[in-house]
Amino acid sequence: MTPVSIFPFVRALALIASLTPALALAAPVGGEDLRPAGRFDNRVFQRVGGSVGVEARPVDRLDPSDPLRRGWEEFAHRHGSAWQIHVDERTGMPTLVAGRGIAWIAGDALARADAGTLEALVREFMAENRGLLGAWGATAELDRAISRELQPGHWQVAFRQVVDGVPVENARLHFHVKHGRLVMFGASLWGTPRIDGVPSIGVLEARAEVERYLETPLDRLVEAREPELAIVAIDPRPDPAGAERWTGPRGEGLGHVLVWRLAYREPDRPALWVAEVDAHDG
């Protein structure tokens, strides 16, 4: 069996401290962990392969005979303006495509546009360019929470990746439309999950596995939130030296794991502990 991954939430805050200044007080300073000792410190380890580095590579640095480079050069030529195009070798997907734009919608149709209208245009665009963007069908789900008009005339249309109703964490497709023109789009951690989102073990089994691993009855802790299923992207060939560049075959740089995620608080201290259990093999 794969061991349970468990980690204290306060340590995880260090990863986002630069994005949220109010959380920076929880981050280690100068490499020193200022967090009070916790009862499960000796059980902590990070998710194997959980650090996934992405190298955004300009297409003009690819070999001139590379089909991916030729495809994007044809795209730029077809749409008649200078484009900045970067791709991710892990996934073969573009991390950033930006240019003067492709005219999509104008006049009264633009004035009446909403997220649904633009979603239809994006899906049509993706179908027309599936050789470069892939065919994702129902796994690309419109994220209505962030698909909106950011400022007058500037729309963001965002998709998240979903497998069997379970979101793939941090897998995103973003499209930006300004004054009716597609001016920028790109993908983040958007790969091809080769697992399904239907768990092989239930949440009771997951709880039992956490209890076994911690050697502590969970009724001595306080459940912080309802258990949830998530699909997480991992590096299939984690490098102990921390190298970020993917050197394997293009498009094969992401693995995926379906996990049960459980969160607990200690009743006598503020620590929040998060455990992940592989929902297929325990």
Topology diagram in text:
Blueprint: E1 5-8, H1 9-13, E2 56-58, H2 67-78, E3 83-88, E4 94-103, H3 107-111, H4 115-128, H5 130-133, E5 140-142, E6 148-151, E7 154-163, E8 166-178, E9 181-188, H6 203-214, E10 222-234, E11 255-265, E12 272-278
Antiparallel strand pairs: 1-12, 2-3, 3-4, 4-9, 5-7, 6-7, 7-8, 8-9, 10-11, 11-12
The gist of it:
The protein is of the alpha+beta class.
What does this structure look like?
With 282 residues, the chain is an alpha+beta fold. 18% of the residues lie in helices and 33% in strands. The chain has six helices and twelve strands. It has helices spanning 9-13, 67-78, 107-111, 115-128, 130-133, 203-214; strands at 5-8, 56-58, 83-88, 94-103, 140-142, 148-151, 154-163, 166-178, 181-188, 222-234, 255-265, 272-278. The strands form two sheets. Strands 2, 3, 4, 5, 6, 7, 8 and 9 form an eight-stranded antiparallel β-sheet that branches. A four-stranded antiparallel β-sheet has the order 1-12-11-10. It is elongated, with a radius of gyration of 22 Å. It starts with a strand and ends with a strand. The relative contact order is 0.18. The model is unreliable at 7-30 (pLDDT under 50).
- The shape, in one word, is elongated
Low-confidence stretches are 7-30
- CA(first)-CA(last) distance: 6 Å
How much strand? Answer: 25-35%
Give the tags.
single chain, 282 residues, alpha+beta, eight-stranded antiparallel beta sheet
